[in-house]
Specification:
A hairpin with a 2-residue loop joins strand 4 (212-219) and strand 5 (222-225). It contains 9 helices and 5 strands. It has 2 domains: 11-101, Orthogonal Bundle (DNA polymerase, domain 1); 104-225, Cytidine Deaminase, domain 2 (3-Layer(aba) Sandwich), CATH 3.40.140. By secondary structure, it is α+β, with helices and mostly antiparallel strands. It is elongated, with a radius of gyration of 22 Å. A 5-stranded mixed sheet has the order 2-1-3-4-5, sandwiched between helices. The longest helix has 19 residues, at 84-102. Helices cover 40% and strands 15% of the residues.
């Protein structure tokens, strides 16, 4: 695939075939660099430099696209050349991307393996600056009825009330649930607190006849399914 010329002036001064929008039409979005994609979003910067220059500088400053996606408008506008309008465009574009991965209707989301959960939630959970604990409430066909945010902070049985995991599950007669939380450190390895919370949740689920099917830890460095690790989770009920 032909490589684009390094931009040193305005995008409009580049040969038409090397301008980001032309390259997008020719190669598709997968054929553009992250800087070129941002340049398509912004258009031309002006006489002092191109939007590609600005985009590449911003990417370098933040350490890459995933880190840039987590930047807030104040961080973005601290960079020369990024005004409130361009910062808003970036924030909106990244949020659209996150919602496109995690905002599909629950009726079309069924879980066959931990990978289905990770594919759905990693985009929104892996890079969070603090821990979040969520539960996925399922019906007898493993279709997600509801995704519930239970807790934000340090996930441990000392702080998380296990009853909160089951509050909505009881209310909507869920057939089972999956616990999901993230590790901001980037290391998905379960902690002793994670294992303790899992054991407490499994015990509570047996009392309520709402089986806990898995506990999945998501991090930027990967994910861990405690079921795959050999934890004895219950099987989904078939009575509902």
């Amino acid at each position: 695939m032909p490589q684009p010329t390094v931009a040193t002036g305005r995008v409009a001064d580049l040969p038409v075939s090397e301008q980001p929008r032309a390259r997008l039409a020719l190669h598709g979005p997968a054929g553009l660099s992250a800087g070129e994609l941002l340049a398509v979003l912004w258009g031309s910067r002006g006489a002092r430099g191109s939007s590609i220059d600005l985009a590449n500088h911003l990417l370098s400053r933040h350490g890459g696209l995933p880190e840039l996606a987590d930047a807030d408008p104040l961080e973005l506008t601290a960079v020369a050349g990024i005004g409130s309008a361009r910062a808003a465009q970036l924030v909106a574009a990244f949020e659209i991307g996150r919602r496109s991965l995690s905002g599909r209707g629950p009726g079309r989301w069924s879980i066959r393996s931990p990978r289905d959960v990770v594919d759905r939630l990693a985009a929104t959970m892996a890079g969070l600056p603090r821990e979040e604990l969520r539960v996925l409430l399922l019906n007898t066909r493993n279709v997600v009825l509801r995704e519930q945010l239970v807790y934000q902070g340090n996930v441990s049985t000392a702080l998380v009330r296990v009853a909160e995991l089951f509050r909505d599950a009881v209310r909507i007669h869920a057939a089972g649930l999956i616990v999901v939380h993230n590790h901001p450190s980037g290391d998905p390895e379960p902690s002793p607190d994670d294992l303790h919370l899992t054991a407490e949740a499994i015990a509570a689920g047996r009392l309520l006849d709402i089986p806990v099917l898995d506990h999945i830890v998501i991090a930027s460095g990967g994910h861990v399914s405690l079921r795959d690790r050999g934890v004895a989770f219950d099987r989904p009920t078939t009575r509902r």
